[in-house]
Structure formats: structure tokens, C-alpha cells
Amino acid sequence: CSNDKRLEEYSPWPSRNAALFIPALAERTSGGEGDLYLDFIVQELLPRIKAEYRCSETFYMAGSSMGGFISLYGGLKYSEVFSKIGAFSTAFWFEKTKMFDFIKDHFNPDLGIYLDVGTKEGASNQFISKTYLHDTLEIHYLLEKLGSKNLKLLVDQGGTHSEIAWKRRFPGFIEWLL
What we know:
Elements (H helix, E strand, L loop, with lengths): L5 H4 L4 E2 L2 H4 L8 E2 L2 H19 L6 E6 L1 H12 L4 E7 L7 H11 L5 E9 L5 H21 L4 E10 L2 H15 L1
Helix pairs in contact: 5-6
């Protein structure tokens, strides 16, 4: 996804919260196209992959930041398609209340969910770092309370909001996944 469409395509809900983390978006509502993105994956991309390649019927979805947000949403919306989800440094702040409600309404205890977060997601910005950590712990607690059968949480001490941090944590995700 291109950076200019990331917020739109990786959330099913519009939000004005982006300005808290990205001040340049202060006068803008972002998000709302996430269902179109997921429908493309489930209704067009996966059937084409199945038709053209010999593959397993087991599918996973994972992403980081807003990609983690849409992956968790997508796994819950299409739990008959995806068996496990990876959500790295998930941007729950984008619409945490709506995600909470969606989890409660669409919870599937058999969906495997991997959550991870660094303690320095915002680098030197304590507000961002605390928000990412707190939100991830809240979502983890909710999933645990609802009875998730395969739930993994990793808190990376000193981990940042970066591809380098996600690359370092990715092998642990793959080990959990397989």
C-alpha cells in the first residue's frame, strides 16, 4: 500500500484520530476503505492464487502498524478464511473503541492471534510509546478474557516502530505461526 492511501485502506472505519500521531492530518478524516481492501483479498486475490497455484487451504494474514490493524480486523471478519493473524506494533489508536466493539461482536476463540509491541514505538515521544503499549495490552487482555485459545503476546523492551524491529521479531512470529 502506498503511504498516501495507507490510513484509508487499512481501516474499515473513518477516524479523526490520526492528527494525534500525524499533526499534518489535523483537518482530515482518514480511513473507511478497509472492507474494500479485504474484499479484494478474499474474493479476488485468494481465489486466483488457489486457481493458479497448488497451495494449502490454510491462510494467514499479518501486518505492522495500520497493517496490523487491518489484519486483526480481517481475521475476525473472515475467520472462516484466515486461521491465524499477526499484528505487529498495531495502531489501535486509530479507532480503538470501534476495534474493541468489533472484537466483542465477532470474536472467534479458534482464531490464532499474535500481538507484539515495542516499548519505544514512539522513539523519544513518550505519549506515542505509552499509547501503543497500553492499547496492545488492553486488546490482549480483552482477547484473553473472551477465551482466545491461541493467543501470543510479545513485548519487546526497547523495540521501536520500524521495519528493523519487526524484522528482528518476525522469526518468533513464524515459529508461533507454524
